[in-house]
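Hey,
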Amino acid sequence: MATQPIGDRFVPVEEYLSTVYEPDCEYDDGVVVERNLGEIEHAYLQTLLATLFTNHATAWNIFALTEQRVQITPKRFLVPDVCVMKRGAPWESILTRPPLVAIEILSPEDTIRRASAKAGEYLQFGIENVWVIDPSARVAYKAGSTGLDLVRSGELTVPDTLILVSVIELFQKLDDARAGRNSQS
Protein backbone atom coordinates (compact mmCIF):
# COMPACT_ATOMS: atom_id res chain seq x y z
CA MET A 1 0.00 0.00 0.00
CA ALA A 2 1.20 3.55 -0.61
CA THR A 3 3.13 5.05 2.25
CA GLN A 4 5.10 8.19 1.58
CA PRO A 5 6.33 10.31 -1.28
CA ILE A 6 9.89 9.87 -2.50
CA GLY A 7 11.61 13.23 -2.38
CA ASP A 8 9.83 16.56 -2.59
CA ARG A 9 9.93 17.44 -6.27
CA PHE A 10 7.31 17.17 -8.97
CA VAL A 11 7.93 14.21 -11.29
CA PRO A 12 6.30 14.28 -14.74
CA VAL A 13 4.41 11.15 -15.83
CA GLU A 14 6.96 10.55 -18.60
CA GLU A 15 9.81 10.50 -16.08
CA TYR A 16 7.93 8.11 -13.78
CA LEU A 17 7.23 5.77 -16.68
CA SER A 18 10.84 5.80 -17.87
CA THR A 19 12.40 5.27 -14.43
CA VAL A 20 13.04 1.89 -12.84
CA TYR A 21 12.20 1.89 -9.14
CA GLU A 22 13.34 -1.00 -6.94
CA PRO A 23 10.85 -1.95 -5.66
CA ASP A 24 8.38 -0.38 -8.04
CA CYS A 25 6.54 2.70 -6.81
CA GLU A 26 3.13 4.14 -7.43
CA TYR A 27 2.45 7.57 -8.91
CA ASP A 28 -0.07 10.20 -7.81
CA ASP A 29 -0.28 13.36 -9.94
CA GLY A 30 3.43 14.22 -9.93
CA VAL A 31 4.39 12.43 -6.72
CA VAL A 32 6.22 9.10 -6.71
CA VAL A 33 4.94 7.06 -3.76
CA GLU A 34 6.74 4.14 -2.09
CA ARG A 35 4.85 0.94 -1.29
CA ASN A 36 5.22 -1.09 1.90
CA LEU A 37 6.57 -4.55 1.16
CA GLY A 38 9.62 -6.66 1.68
CA GLU A 39 8.49 -8.64 4.69
CA ILE A 40 8.64 -12.41 4.35
CA GLU A 41 4.92 -13.03 4.97
CA HIS A 42 3.99 -10.48 2.29
CA ALA A 43 6.46 -11.96 -0.20
CA TYR A 44 5.49 -15.55 0.48
CA LEU A 45 1.76 -14.90 0.18
CA GLN A 46 2.40 -13.09 -3.10
CA THR A 47 4.35 -16.12 -4.32
CA LEU A 48 1.64 -18.55 -3.17
CA LEU A 49 -1.09 -16.57 -4.93
CA ALA A 50 0.84 -16.21 -8.18
CA THR A 51 1.63 -19.93 -8.11
CA LEU A 52 -1.97 -20.88 -7.40
CA PHE A 53 -3.26 -18.79 -10.29
CA THR A 54 -0.55 -20.06 -12.62
CA ASN A 55 -1.26 -23.69 -11.68
CA HIS A 56 -4.96 -23.15 -12.48
CA ALA A 57 -4.47 -20.84 -15.48
CA THR A 58 -5.93 -23.22 -18.05
CA ALA A 59 -8.89 -24.41 -15.96
CA TRP A 60 -9.71 -20.90 -14.76
CA ASN A 61 -8.96 -19.28 -18.15
CA ILE A 62 -6.72 -16.63 -16.57
CA PHE A 63 -3.12 -15.59 -16.04
CA ALA A 64 -1.50 -13.82 -13.08
CA LEU A 65 0.82 -10.84 -12.88
CA THR A 66 2.76 -9.64 -9.86
CA GLU A 67 3.51 -5.98 -9.20
CA GLN A 68 2.02 -4.85 -12.51
CA ARG A 69 1.47 -1.12 -13.00
CA VAL A 70 -2.17 -0.19 -13.52
CA GLN A 71 -3.02 3.28 -14.84
CA ILE A 72 -6.32 4.15 -13.19
CA THR A 73 -6.36 7.79 -14.35
CA PRO A 74 -4.04 9.77 -16.64
CA LYS A 75 -2.01 10.87 -13.60
CA ARG A 76 -2.52 7.96 -11.19
CA PHE A 77 -0.71 4.60 -11.33
CA LEU A 78 -1.16 1.86 -8.74
CA VAL A 79 0.80 -1.38 -8.39
CA PRO A 80 -1.29 -4.23 -6.96
CA ASP A 81 0.63 -7.11 -5.41
CA VAL A 82 -1.16 -9.54 -7.75
CA CYS A 83 -3.42 -8.96 -10.76
CA VAL A 84 -5.44 -11.68 -12.41
CA MET A 85 -6.26 -11.25 -16.08
CA LYS A 86 -8.73 -13.10 -18.26
CA ARG A 87 -6.94 -15.10 -20.92
CA GLY A 88 -7.19 -13.12 -24.15
CA ALA A 89 -7.11 -9.74 -22.39
CA PRO A 90 -5.15 -7.07 -24.27
CA TRP A 91 -1.40 -7.42 -23.71
CA GLU A 92 -0.26 -4.04 -22.35
CA SER A 93 3.05 -3.06 -20.75
CA ILE A 94 1.02 -0.94 -18.33
CA LEU A 95 -2.58 -1.96 -17.76
CA THR A 96 -5.06 0.68 -18.88
CA ARG A 97 -8.08 -1.63 -18.67
CA PRO A 98 -9.33 -3.22 -15.45
CA PRO A 99 -7.96 -6.68 -14.66
CA LEU A 100 -10.35 -9.39 -13.45
CA VAL A 101 -8.91 -9.26 -9.91
CA ALA A 102 -6.58 -6.93 -8.01
CA ILE A 103 -5.05 -8.22 -4.78
CA GLU A 104 -3.32 -6.21 -2.09
CA ILE A 105 -1.39 -7.95 0.68
CA LEU A 106 -0.98 -5.84 3.78
CA SER A 107 2.42 -5.23 5.31
CA PRO A 108 2.70 -4.44 9.04
CA GLU A 109 2.89 -0.70 8.29
CA ASP A 110 -0.33 -0.71 6.25
CA THR A 111 -3.69 0.23 7.70
CA ILE A 112 -7.17 -1.03 6.87
CA ARG A 113 -8.23 2.58 6.27
CA ARG A 114 -5.55 3.05 3.62
CA ALA A 115 -6.32 -0.36 2.09
CA SER A 116 -10.01 0.54 1.93
CA ALA A 117 -9.26 3.83 0.18
CA LYS A 118 -7.04 2.08 -2.37
CA ALA A 119 -9.66 -0.63 -2.91
CA GLY A 120 -12.16 2.14 -3.58
CA GLU A 121 -9.88 3.54 -6.29
CA TYR A 122 -9.68 0.10 -7.90
CA LEU A 123 -13.47 -0.26 -7.85
CA GLN A 124 -13.94 3.21 -9.31
CA PHE A 125 -11.54 2.27 -12.12
CA GLY A 126 -13.76 -0.72 -12.89
CA ILE A 127 -11.99 -3.65 -11.22
CA GLU A 128 -14.92 -5.72 -9.96
CA ASN A 129 -12.95 -8.11 -7.76
CA VAL A 130 -10.65 -6.42 -5.26
CA TRP A 131 -9.23 -8.49 -2.42
CA VAL A 132 -7.18 -7.36 0.56
CA ILE A 133 -5.31 -10.01 2.53
CA ASP A 134 -3.97 -9.28 6.02
CA PRO A 135 -1.37 -11.87 7.03
CA SER A 136 -0.98 -10.44 10.55
CA ALA A 137 -4.67 -10.78 11.40
CA ARG A 138 -5.05 -13.90 9.21
CA VAL A 139 -8.11 -12.48 7.45
CA ALA A 140 -9.15 -11.43 3.97
CA TYR A 141 -11.52 -8.78 2.71
CA LYS A 142 -13.48 -8.23 -0.49
CA ALA A 143 -14.05 -4.65 -1.56
CA GLY A 144 -17.61 -3.58 -2.10
CA SER A 145 -19.66 -0.42 -2.38
CA THR A 146 -19.61 0.03 1.41
CA GLY A 147 -15.88 -0.56 1.88
CA LEU A 148 -14.02 -3.73 2.82
CA ASP A 149 -16.14 -6.72 3.80
CA LEU A 150 -14.58 -9.47 5.90
CA VAL A 151 -14.59 -12.81 4.10
CA ARG A 152 -16.08 -15.02 6.79
CA SER A 153 -16.24 -18.17 4.66
CA GLY A 154 -12.46 -18.22 4.22
CA GLU A 155 -12.90 -18.46 0.45
CA LEU A 156 -12.34 -15.78 -2.16
CA THR A 157 -14.24 -16.33 -5.38
CA VAL A 158 -14.98 -14.54 -8.64
CA PRO A 159 -18.60 -14.75 -9.81
CA ASP A 160 -19.22 -16.67 -13.03
CA THR A 161 -15.77 -18.31 -12.95
CA LEU A 162 -14.20 -21.37 -11.36
CA ILE A 163 -11.77 -19.20 -9.37
CA LEU A 164 -11.65 -20.23 -5.72
CA VAL A 165 -8.91 -19.23 -3.29
CA SER A 166 -8.96 -20.75 0.18
CA VAL A 167 -7.53 -18.13 2.49
CA ILE A 168 -7.40 -20.76 5.21
CA GLU A 169 -5.09 -22.92 3.06
CA LEU A 170 -2.91 -19.91 2.20
CA PHE A 171 -2.41 -19.08 5.87
CA GLN A 172 -1.77 -22.77 6.67
CA LYS A 173 0.97 -22.85 4.03
CA LEU A 174 2.39 -19.65 5.48
CA ASP A 175 2.39 -21.17 8.97
CA ASP A 176 3.92 -24.40 7.66
CA ALA A 177 6.70 -22.49 5.93
CA ARG A 178 7.41 -20.51 9.09
CA ALA A 179 7.59 -23.72 11.12
CA GLY A 180 9.76 -25.43 8.50
CA ARG A 181 7.16 -28.06 7.62
CA ASN A 182 6.13 -29.24 4.18
CA SER A 183 2.44 -28.52 3.60
CA GLN A 184 0.29 -31.05 1.79
CA SER A 185 -1.97 -29.94 -1.11
